[in-house]
Amino acid sequence: SQTIHQWPATLVQPVGSPLSLECTVEGTSNPNLYWYRQAAGRGLQLLFYSVGIGQISSEVPQNLSASRPQDRQFILSSKKLLLSDSGFYLCAWSVFPGNYGYTFGSGTRLTVV
Amino acid sequence: GESVGLHLPTLSVQEGDNSIINCAYSNSASDYFIWYKQESGKGPQFIIDIRSNMDKRQGQRVTVLLNKTVKHLSLQIAATQPGDSAVYFCAETHSGGGADGLTFGKGTHLIIQP
Q1: Contacts of A104 in chain B (CB under 8 A)
Q2: Angle at B89 between CA B84 and CA B92, to 5 degrees
């Protein structure tokens, strides 16, 4: 069966420090991969999605970037964190093609101080 | 998409009662819909999905109804239990429209009263 792993679960970083969040998927090949952000008590905002290695689409301009160095690995990064980058970050995957079966990871709670 | 919403509406029901959570969507091209349950501090958990060629789909204690005419989706939970307390999100996507993600509803906070 397919599983999705996301780490770390929580992270406290100072303003101006770099960020690297990692997500890996097992049990499937060539998935669509996504990064979402969720502010407290709110819905989910799509940040990036990827349909293949090295292919990244950005949904909103921001201080973050994403990379997909391997088929089942998706990384969210920042060179210098801002206070406004605090939030709950979620990785997800879906079946390609068809976009079915969206499954989310357990999330990373990022607090920028 | 409607991904960053206002404060969540709340639905409070008695334990053992049935609950109905509603969701409206706007994209006529959407053909795949999912309901998620999110507990505090956790990622959204897939509950049930439905494709646009169906009006109703049942799972264990849950039923999803789709009305394409008025672009309305509902989630019915039978005999609610304390563990059903969570935020519930509906989501829509167009399966043939590329991998550009789901569009989420604002979410509803379901509270189960003992």
Answers
A1: 36, 43-46
A2: 140
Q: What is the pLDDT averaged over residues B50-72?
A: 95
From chain B, the residues in CB contact with A59 under 8 A are 100-101
The Cβ of residue B29 has, within 10 Å, a number of other Cβ atoms equal to: 11
| A59 interfacial to chain B (CB closer than 8 Å) | yes
User: For residues B84 and A43, what is the distance between their CA atoms, to the nearest angstrom?
Assistant: 19
Rg (Cα) of chain B, in Å, rounded?
14
**A94 CB-contact burial (10 Å; exposed 0-12 / middle 13-18 / buried 19+):** buried
> Do residues A5 and A90 make contact, with C-beta atoms less than 8 angstroms apart?
no
B106–A43 CB contact, under 8 Å:
yes
Residues 6+ apart with CB under 8 A from A16: A80, A81
Instruction: Encode pLDDT of B10-42 as tens digits.
Output: 999 999 999 999 999 988 888 889 999 999 889
Phi, psi of B82 (to 5 degrees): -55, -35
